[in-house]
């Protein structure tokens, strides 16, 4: 593992000159790796598999650094698919050798597909499991970042639109294309609540109370009563859902 972490540090530090977003992405990656390892332990994976997950955690967003350098955005629609790009980075001159000796194909396929809505059907059961772990670990960290007051996103003094509200309650993930009001950005965050893959992720969510913290922040900054009511309603819906998922 030290070999992988050392190489990750060396590689990513060489991008620091391209701006603060790089350090943010490094920190995000390290937290996602920790989340993925904690979740894997809760799922009782073997130590061997946890080692693979740790390397996958470090590498899942490895394409982000070249993406930022070349396109100055992390928005794939405006640039390149960062999963595919990560795969290319790791394939080039067998760069992946610097991280792991065995199970390279698994790591490569998980990196490539970790951001896909629909997974190809030639993945092994284990690869699908690893992708689900990384997705949950990633969502946990996005929620962590949203729960920090200083990192709050810009909303407006308007409620969430009915369209986005309904979509969240249908357990759909909201994308940037769905947004109507600025407050709808909260729908992206709330949509995560219904899309975790494991009971164990809900147990972590219950412990960390990210949604309560997030809702407190936005209730505090908005002057709109309708949005305040929506936020309280969403708190109940989400907390009931989390509770239900930890019991099943
Ligand atoms: Fe990613």
Shape: globular
Sheet with most strands: none
- Quote the beta fraction: under 5%
User: Which architecture of the largest domain would the CATH scheme give at its second level?
Assistant: Orthogonal Bundle
Bound molecules: fe (ii) ion
Detail the poorly predicted runs: none
The CATH H-level superfamily of the largest domain is Hypothetical protein af1432
Distance N to C terminus: 35 Å
What's the CATH class label of the largest domain? Mainly Alpha
The helical percent reads 55-70%
Describe this structure in words.
This protein has about 250 residues and is mainly α. The protein folds into two domains: about 150 residues, Hypothetical protein af1432, CATH 1.10.3210.10; about 90 residues, no CATH class. Helix content is about 65%, strand content about 0%. It contains twelve helices and no strands. Helix 2 packs antiparallel against helix 3, helix 8 runs parallel beside helix 9 and helix 10 crosses helix 12. The longest helix has 23 residues. The protein is globular, with a radius of gyration of 19 Å. The model has no long low-confidence stretch (mean pLDDT about 95). Bound molecules: fe (ii) ion. Fe (ii) ion binds next to loops.
């Amino acid at each position: 593992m030290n070999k992988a972490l050392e190489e990750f540090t060396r590689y990513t530090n060489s991008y620091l000159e391209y701006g603060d977003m790089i350090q943010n992405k490094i920190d995000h990656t390290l937290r996602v790796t920790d989340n993925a390892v904690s979740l894997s332990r809760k799922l009782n994976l073997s130590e061997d598999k946890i080692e693979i997950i740790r390397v996958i955690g470090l590498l899942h967003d490895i394409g982000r650094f070249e993406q930022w350098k070349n396109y100055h955005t992390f928005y794939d629609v405006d640039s390149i698919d960062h999963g595919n790009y990560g795969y290319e980075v790791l394939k080039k001159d067998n760069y992946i050798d610097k991280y792991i000796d065995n199970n390279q194909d698994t790591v490569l396929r998980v990196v490539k597909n970790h951001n896909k809505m629909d997974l190809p059907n030639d993945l092994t059961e284990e690869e699908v499991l690893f992708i689900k772990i990384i997705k949950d670990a990633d969502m946990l960290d996005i929620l962590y970042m949203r729960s920090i007051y200083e990192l709050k996103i810009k909303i407006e003094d308007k409620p969430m639109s009915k369209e986005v509200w309904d979509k969240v309650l249908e357990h759909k993930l909201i994308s940037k294309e769905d947004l109507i009001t600025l407050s709808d950005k909260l729908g992206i965050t709330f949509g995560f609540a219904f899309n975790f893959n494991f009971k164990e992720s809900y147990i972590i969510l219950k412990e960390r109370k990210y949604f309560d913290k997030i809702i407190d922040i936005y209730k505090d900054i908005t002057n709109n009563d309708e949005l305040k009511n929506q936020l309280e309603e969403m708190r109940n819906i989400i907390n009931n859902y989390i509770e239900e998922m930890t019991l099943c």
